[in-house]
Amino acid sequence: MARPVEEHELSGLLDGQLDPERAREVREAILADERLKVEYERLAGLDQQLIASAREAIFRPAVSLPSSGLSAYFAIILAAAIFVLVVVRMLPKLKMLFASAIAVNALALVVLVAVLVLLCRKLDSSSAENYPVLPASRSK
Amino acid sequence: MPKGTFQPVQQAQYGRLIEEIIERAAAYAFSILGNRHDAEDAVQQAALRGLERLAMYDPARSFKAWWFAVLRNCCIDMLRSSRARKAVAIESAGLRQIAESKASDCEDLGAGLEKIASEHAEILRLRYFGNMSYRELSEAMSIPEGTVMSRLHYARKALAEEMKAN
Fold this sequence. Notes:
The complex is a heterodimer.
Chain A: H1 8-14, H2 20-32, H3 34-57, E1 63-65, H4 70-90, H5 96-125, E2 131-134
Antiparallel strand pairs in A: 1-2
Helix pairs in contact in A: 2-3, 4-5
Chain B: H1 8-33, H2 36-52, H3 63-81, H4 90-98, H5 103-115, H6 118-129, H7 134-141, H8 145-165
Helix pairs in contact in B: 1-2, 1-3, 1-4, 1-6, 2-3, 3-7, 4-5, 5-8, 6-8, 7-8
């Protein structure tokens, strides 16, 4: 024999949260009890009103996020690769003094790129208008 | 995303996660704030604030529940700063604005949500406007999942009674 329907199980049935056997028992109880039927229909009606109101409220706003910084790391890696290329390929062919000057300049270039990238990231993080991540669209 | 180990690559994941829920987030913010402009601002603020606090997000939790909590705080902050501009009851304004072409039903809903207990209004707002599952509601409201059904039920009942009384 099915246990009595608890009041909140009406909402459970409405939300599809009852297991199939219990859902069947609750439906049968609703059909057999006018009071339960009235209450369930009242909740179901309210449920539909709320669903309709929520659907009308849906829209897609434009939201932007700061850049992730991946391009910044790429720039640093590229500068370091150029430095290594200079050191490996060119220095053995040059006189020591000239080679030292080239190496120092290449290292300075890497440091400069890194500083510029970090400065740009600091500016990026203080601004919300970098690139649109989520474009707005008309509401459904 | 491991807790406390925020890395740049996670920002892309964060953006994708936001994109999945942004429409419902906008609807939820709209139901609180009453107009699309403010709702859009609140969602933008929440997107940035959530990014700042991403290291505090526990991946074991629902991202949606966590981020909606951030969004709700942004909406509350906006309400506090713009309280003087509100000519009508705040919590019902959004529904009333929606309901221009569906006069009585949505106005009753708006008025009803305004008058019932805030925890009842909140769970209804999260369920319908936020489209949250029971599990997400459990996390968002910090209540056991087994309690969600009864909490929702009594919220619906309170709203129905309020609408009937009006």
